[in-house]
């Protein structure tokens, strides 16, 4: 009797919140070393690739908080990073999932609709030109999947966010958003199927708004 054929191994490097240009540089250096040392089939960034503090509604009426910050500089910086990543993993597919920080652009455009079509994240990162897949999770709740594993930015920030993600979506999911590492699993009744949700930490540095307060953030990928 012939042996069942094994599925080929699929290597995916999954990166959580980076918040460029506020990344943790030591953590990112470790990521890029791993990116270069293995043959990846895909690199998946699960949202908040960008911070976009200069268009955050939290800074409305507080120009001193964004002095010297511009979209131009942010996107020049991020394009250089994507150039480097595509050189480090030249044969890998790349996927970027929309997080709430990318959605800051949409909210900014809602206040100044004349900018529509000029400053959207996929456009300024040249994602189509680069062949990078864009997944509109935050604005359209689109998930990305490889087989039975789904990828999202994340929605919930309560103490049991992994349980909330697992119960709400009903599929096994890796996500970011909360900057910590947490997991939850349960078995679906009648289907004998385990559903798992796992948050995978962050790759960003401490943010100025935290003012040095304690946090539960964990660097991971």
Would you give an account of this structure?
28% of the residues lie in helices and 19% in strands. The mean pLDDT is 94. Strands 5-6-7-9-8 form a five-stranded mixed sheet, with helices on one face. The chain has a four-stranded parallel sheet with strand order 1-2-3-4, with no helix packed on it. It is globular and about 70 Å long. With 221 residues, the chain is α/β, with parallel strands linked by helices. Helix 2 links the parallel strand 2 and strand 3 (93-97). The chain has helices at 25-37, 71-88, 103-111, 121-124, 127-130, 137-140, 161-169; strands at residues 12-15, 42-45, 93-97, 133-135, 144-146, 149-151, 172-175, 181-188, 193-200.
Helix vs. strand class: alpha/beta
Strand percentage lies at 15-25%
Low-pLDDT ranges:
none
* Rounded mean pLDDT score: 94
Multimerization status: single chain
User: What is the C-alpha radius of gyration, as a whole number of Å?
Assistant: 18 Å
Estimated helix fraction: 25-40%
- Order of secondary-structure elements: EHEHEHHHEHEEHEEE
């Amino acid at each position: 009797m012939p042996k069942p054929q094994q599925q080929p191994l699929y290597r995916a490097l999954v990166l959580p919140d980076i918040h460029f240009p506020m990344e943790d540089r030591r953590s990112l250096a470790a990521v890029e070393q791993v990116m270069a040392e293995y043959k990846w089939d895909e690199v998946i960034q699960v949202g908040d690739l960008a911070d976009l503090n200069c268009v955050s509604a939290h800074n409305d009426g507080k120009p001193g908080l964004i002095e010297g910050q511009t979209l131009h500089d942010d996107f020049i910086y991020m394009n250089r990073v994507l150039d480097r990543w595509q050189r480090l993993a030249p044969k890998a597919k790349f996927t970027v999932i929309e997080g709430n920080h990318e959605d800051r652009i949409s909210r900014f455009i809602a206040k100044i609709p004349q900018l529509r079509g000029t400053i959207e994240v996929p456009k300024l990162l040249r994602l189509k030109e680069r062949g990078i897949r864009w997944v509109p999770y935050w604005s359209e709740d689109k998930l990305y999947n490889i087989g039975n594993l789904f990828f999202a930015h994340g929605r919930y920030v309560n103490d049991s966010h992994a349980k909330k993600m697992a119960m709400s979506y009903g599929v096994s999911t890796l996500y970011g958003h909360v900057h910590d590492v947490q997991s939850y699993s349960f078995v679906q009744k009648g289907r004998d199927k385990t559903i798992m949700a796992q948050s995978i930490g962050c790759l960003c540095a401490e943010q100025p708004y935290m003012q040095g307060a304690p946090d539960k953030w964990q660097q991971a990928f």
